[in-house]
Amino acid sequence: MEKIDEHKSFGGWQQRHTHASKVCGCDMTFSLYLPPAAETAIVPVVYWLSGLTCTDENFPNKAGAQEIAADLGIAIVAPDTSPRGDDIADDAAYDLGQGAGFYVNATAAPWSRHYQMYDYVTHELPQVLAEGFADQLDLAREAIAGHSMGGHGALVIGLRNPDRFAAISAFSAICAPSAVSWGEKAFSTYLGDDKQAWLDYDATALMHAANNPKALPPIRLEQGLADGFLDEQLAPEQLEAAARQTGARLEVNRRKGYDHSYFFIASFIEDHLRFLARHLGA
Ligand SMILES: N[C@@H](CCC(=O)N[C@@H](CSC=O)C(=O)NCC(=O)O)C(=O)O
């Protein structure tokens, strides 16, 4: 692993690191905020998964989370949104290929060779963090958050690993990807046409299928009502219906006038980090 950038921020450090990923078969870059508390103790970890067209840099540059993370004593890890490189499959569209990995393990060629983002975020990245930051990060205390495609990723990873993630935070998440065009396009491309296979990556389906829905991690979902993607792509009402039917813990906050942008995220990130920190015992 190589540190490629570092800035002091609110007493802690905003860093970027790159490393060779076996799972994705390419170099992967992630951003990491270390709060001041990490200088003397191990601190809980929040993963932030970004949306379509993003890299690891959108969240640290735009969300304004560092001051709150410093206050709460939590680290924030923001991975890239896909494998990247000249020799890696891509598509000209903004919602497929590089920058649009959808946090799945692709099974269809040519994508399956590198697009293994579920395993990368869930297994390889935590291992890299455990090895590289043993004196700073407490990998036994994890929570997960994200925006849009990354909100979908946070919901799926959190719901599939309920014993691991203390809580889930999502902004403007794609809540029922099998039923909307962003998800149909990505899943048919990365996973093939068998829609049964899609359900492993569909938060609403996962909630319905959970053995013990009441024991799933608590979810806080923030949704702007002026979001141009709300009607066509996000379907928070489907996740709400699943929570009502199953008893899973879900709080949805609808915010008048807010759109899909990082201005929305920055407006409510403090509430979400405090929610995650509470469940992390931070
Ligand atoms: N057509 C647009 C769409 C890209 C976009 O809005 N991306 C969002 C996430 S959308 C769902 O995953 C985003 O976070 N963009 C980055 C940012 O910093 O705002 C386009 O190509 O711009």
Automatic annotation (TrEMBL):
It catalyses: S-formylglutathione + H2O = formate + glutathione + H(+). The keyword Hydrolase applies. It holds the Pfam family Esterase. Keywords: Hydrolase, Serine esterase. The lineage of its organism: Bacteria, Pseudomonadati, Pseudomonadota, Gammaproteobacteria, Salinisphaerales. GO terms for biological process: formaldehyde catabolic process. InterPro entries: AB_hydrolase_fold, Esterase-like, S-formylglutathione_hydrol. The active site is at S148, D227, H260. GO terms for cellular component: cytosol. Belongs to the esterase D family. Serine hydrolase involved in the detoxification of formaldehyde. This is S-formylglutathione hydrolase. It comes from Salinisphaera japonica YTM-1. GO terms for molecular function: carboxylic ester hydrolase activity; S-formylglutathione hydrolase activity. Its EC number is 3.1.2.12.
